[in-house]
Write a structure and sequence with these properties.
Distance between the termini: 15 Å
Shape: globular
Number of domains: 2
Largest sheet: 8 strands, mixed
Strand content: 15-25%
CATH superfamily of the largest domain: Aldolase class I
Number of strands: 12
CATH topology of the largest domain: TIM Barrel
Strand order of the largest sheet: 1-2-5-6-7-8-9-10
Order of helices and strands: EEEEHEHEHEHHEHEHEHHHEE
CATH architecture of the largest domain: Alpha-Beta Barrel
């Protein structure tokens, strides 16, 4: 499948079936920490990047094979709200499943009324707020020049007042870029304005787009989260175990590795298998030259 992947275990969403309505790597930003690698098409221009009807057909097929998921999640190869058919995609997903729908977004296009209308139809909107000051915003997110962090925060605050679902902010902290006390204070002020339901604090975990992006230590991450207010919590590693998905296991693993670097444990959880079985699949894919090994923070990951 080109547009539907998983189910995969998610730290925030449990067992999540991914829906990708963008093409790699099209985004409004080129974040230094992005696990998908550098942005190759940085833009704020919305377009019909993929056929929503084709996405719906794939989703219907996968849901027949694996109906028991915690969420259907719009995420994947870039910023999903860049698809001009975003609202129609959400409507199509709603028609196919009663599972809650989430959107993982950098929040940059919430200033657009049509984007807000589409986001209003889902259960969970999870935008990122990594920086407020122009310097930190440029350093961490490397945005399209048209984007202004304060305009995005204003729009998120306005959206949150009327949104009936759950608004979960994520802040990714990168050592030496957005973790100083002044920037943390600005982010805390933004959180108070937006008034989300949850705030998830994260750092560089998987191999990043830019090798200069370094993680905070666990102690520093906990300290930073405390500075961001009572809602902020550090995201814990997932303990979700998936039921075995149907279909060719190798293709499913490659689809996962196309969207983020994976470990043996990630693959085992997603397939509902032992780590030994996952390692055998990864070994075969390495032999077939369909994936490669990357090392980050002394851990081994696999990337398509």
């Amino acid at each position: 499948m080109k547009h539907v992947f998983g189910p995969v275990p998610s730290r925030r969403l449990g067992l999540s079936l991914g829906v990708d309505i963008i093409v790699p790597k099209t985004c409004t930003m080129d974040c230094v920490y992005c696990e998908l690698g550098p942005t190759t098409n940085r833009t704020v221009e919305r377009a019909c990047y993929v056929d929503v009807d084709e996405v719906a057909r794939e989703l219907e097929e996968r849901l027949r094979e694996h109906p028991a998921v915690d969420f259907v999640t719009l995420s994947g190869s870039g910023e999903p709200t860049l698809n001009a058919d975003f609202r129609r995609a959400v409507t199509a997903i709603r028609a196919l499943t009663d599972a809650p729908v989430a959107v993982l977004t950098n929040g940059s296009l919430v200033t657009d009324p049509d984007v807000r209308a589409g986001l209003a139809l889902v259960d969970v909107v999870a935008p990122s707020v990594d920086a407020v000051s122009p310097g930190a915003f440029e350093a961490v997110n490397r945005p399209d020049p048209a984007l202004d962090p304060r305009e995005i925060i204003d729009a998120l605050a306005a959206f949150g007042k009327d949104f009936r679902g759950q608004l979960w902010l994520e802040t990714v902290l990168v050592a030496g870029m957005n973790d100083d006390s002044d920037e943390l204070r600005r982010i805390r002020d933004a959180i108070e304005r937006i008034a989300p339901d949850r705030v998830h604090v994260n750092t560089v975990v998987r191999p990043p787009a830019d090798s200069s992006a370094m993680p905070l230590s666990p102690a520093a991450l906990r300290s930073a989260a405390a500075r961001l207010g009572p809602l902020a919590c550090v995201i814990a590693p997932t303990s979700v175990t998936a039921a075995p998905p149907l279909g060719e296991e190798g293709d499913l693993v490659v689809a996962m590795a196309e969207r983020r670097p994976v470990t043996v444990s990630d693959v085992a959880r997603s397939l509902g298998s032992s780590q030994a079985h996952a390692a055998k699949i990864l070994g075969r894919l390495l032999d077939e030259d369909r994936i490669r090994v990357v090392t980050h923070d002394r851990k081994q990951y696999y990337r398509a």
